[in-house]
Specification:
Layout (H helix, E strand, L loop, with lengths): L3 E7 L2 H9 L6 E9 L14 E15 L3 E9 L10 E5 L2 E8 L7 E2 L6 E2 L1 E7 L5 E12 L13 E7 L1
Parallel strand pairs: 1-11, 7-8
Antiparallel strand pairs: 2-3, 3-10, 4-9, 4-11, 5-6, 6-10
Length: 165
């Protein structure tokens, strides 16, 4: 069983906001996101405990020009193949395994886009000519419920992580 997370970068908001706020002292940064999804390994449907695995998502901003730049980011996560944040689904052909991704180790805050009971994440990073790179890393907590009627196979889902700044 495996989970893949790809990333997508959305940008442009920062430069536009800074041009309006301080056109004479333009400051800029570029940001990227990378993610590694939880790899649940071999799922045993007879195990009475849920299967847990962690991944991570990292946002990195680099100084481009101007003065110090503070970048406020919002992270959102797609629902994947299930189309629902209530329970994400990994697929192996037509076979399914339920799982979900969380911000917390107590599995109460679902990573998503702010709809359907999910939450977005965020970070604030500052870069400047003297501190050219800043990063923020967050743990992705993955949980797969126990006692699912699983058919042997390789299961996967794709979650798109979007960072808006």
């Amino acid at each position: 069983m495996r989970s893949r997370i790809r990333n997508r970068l959305r940008h442009g908001l920062l430069a536009m906001a800074l041009c309006v706020a301080a056109p004479a002292a333009f400051a800029a940064a570029t940001c990227t996101v990378s993610a590694v999804g939880p790899a649940f390994g071999v799922y045993n449907p007879l195990n009475p405990a849920p299967t847990l695995s962690n991944g991570s998502v990292t946002a990195t901003c680099n100084y481009v020009s101007g003065g110090a730049t503070t970048v406020t980011m919002v992270s959102s996560y797609s629902a994947g193949s299930s189309g629902s944040y209530a329970s994400r689904t990994m697929l192996s052909g037509v076979n399914r395994l339920n799982y979900n991704l969380y911000f917390d180790a107590a599995f109460t805050q679902i990573r998503g886009d702010g709809t359907g009971g999910s939450q977005t994440g965020g970070a604030t990073l500052t870069v400047s000519s003297s501190s050219r790179t800043a990063s923020a890393t967050s743990t992705i907590y993955g949980r797969m419920p126990a006692a699912q009627n699983a058919v042997p196979g390789s299961y996967a889902d794709t979650i798109v992580v979007t960072i808006t700044y």
